[in-house]
Request: fold
Amino acid sequence: QVQLVESGGGLVQAGGSLRLSCAASGLTFGSYAMAWYRQAPGKERELVAAISGGGSTNYADSVKGRFTISRDNAKNTSYLQMNILKPEDTAVYYCAARRRLYSGSPEYWGQGTQVTVSS
Reply:
């Protein structure tokens, strides 16, 4: 059974930082691109960042230069370091596993973790 478990969300002031973690189990971790999506109230879920098994990355324009995605294949864990947070970054953040870095729907999802940025 595949499980993706996020942690690290919370409440932070604008300009602050948070680090999200996603612990994966039940899948061949290195064979999947790991991604972070987010969904704000009343909006569609959107891709924030993705990283291939080999470490290539892909970012949404809105987070380039502020967020960094990484992974530790030995620990089956991916991370999203979020710096210079803005109120518009407030959303539920979801970890996901998908086959390709730049395309394709995720095969697996985590349960989500709330990130709230106060102004």
